[in-house]
Structure formats: C-alpha cells, structure tokens
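Protein Record: Sequence and Backbone Structure Tokens
======================================================
Scope: a single protein chain, as residues and as a discrete description of its fold.
Tokens: labelled as protein backbone structure tokens, with as many entries as the chain has residues.
Position: the record begins directly beneath this header, with no further notes in between.
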Amino acid sequence: MSEQISTLAYHSHEALPHGVALPKNVVVYFCLYANRMPYAKVFNDQMERISSWRAAYPEQPMALWLYNTFPKEHAIKGGFNFYPAFFAPDAYRQYQFFKEKNIRAGIFQCGLNGAPDTYMQLCWMIDPDRTPDELLDEYFACYGKPGPHLKEFYNLVAERYADRSRFPKGGVMHQTVHLAWGKLGTKDLMDKLAAAMAKAEAAATTPEEKAHVAIWRLSVWDYMKSGHDSFTVR
C-alpha cells in the first residue's frame, strides 16, 4: 500500500485542480477559513467548493483545516475587543455537513478560542450527532449551580451572533469595531448579559464555583464590557 500524502486546498488554490487526477493516496485538507463567519458570502462559496471536491472525488480521503483564529486574530490586528463568535447552532450544522460529505480523514482546529465552542467542536470530531444543547449542558455542569445561568449567557451571545440581520448585506468577512459593538454587542443585549452574570455570581456558594465564575467574568464578561464601553465612549 502506498504512503499517504497530504495537501492543502487553501485560499487561491482551494478549487479543483485542472488537467490532473489526484491519486487515491492524496489526502486533501480543505482550509475552511470562514467556518466562524457563516454570515459571510465567502462561507457559502467555500461550502460549495467542498461539495465540488466530494462530487469529483467521491472516494478520496478528505480532511479539514478549520480557522478558529477568527474573529480574534483580525480584532487583535485592528486594536479592538471583538464580539465573541459563540456559534454552536452553526457549528453543529457544519459538522452535520462534514458527516454527509464523509470528511473523516482528519480535522485540524487552527487557533482554538472560546472554551465552550472548543469543547463542542472537539466532541463533534468524535460524534457529530450530539446536539448543541446536550453539549452545553455537559460543559456548563462543571460550573455547578451557576452553570445554567452561564449557559443562558452563552445562548444570548450565540443567538445575537446568529442574527443575520445584524450583518451588512453583501457578505462582510471580518468583524469591525462598529459591527462588534454597534450591531452585535448593543446595550439591550449587554443589560441581559449583566443580569445573567449577576445570577451566576449569586448562585456560586463554594470556593470552586466562585473561582469558576470569576474566570468566566474575567475572560468573557469583563472583556465584552470593556469593548462595549470603549466603543460607547468613543
């Protein structure tokens, strides 16, 4: 049996090759760099290209390179706090699509960020049929009594991120500071998140629960509040 060779279908070279047929030992890693930007036109374009690869090579081993670096990477370069790309419903649909296309040769998560989404995606690499609600319950169980309130927090952020009406028509790719805090993390949502955060902190009674909630506050809520407040003042 011949050895396997891996190659990337990436950016300007992600479409099907012309004038050559790939041997069966070539594993194609499709670079789905728009996986955390399902609102963008480029995401739909990439999903169509994945389908074209599978149609042209129904038996070819296919793999994925996912870019969880976004939106964090672009926001760092732009010097602003980004709106968290909590995207459990969209991620679940993506993994169902990967299952349908039999993309199981390997999934590489580039630049993990957002602990709940990281947990769910790693679980879906093993079993793509587990539901977001099931995995969120499992993840937030580690917080103890504050868990349900932090799950509420997560869902509020994710529901807003999934609201396509908040994004400019025409398929913006990366977040801008105006999109992050002028369209997504608006005052009405921030008030709801503050209430969920307060309930989580009130529910924490053990040292472990208080420590876990403090980490969520520091890494998620304080970060969001800083981004929102800075935008509002400016």
Observations:
- The radius of gyration is 20 Å.
- Strands lie at 5-9, 26-32, 62-67, 107-110.
- The chain has nine helices and four strands.
- The mean pLDDT is 94.
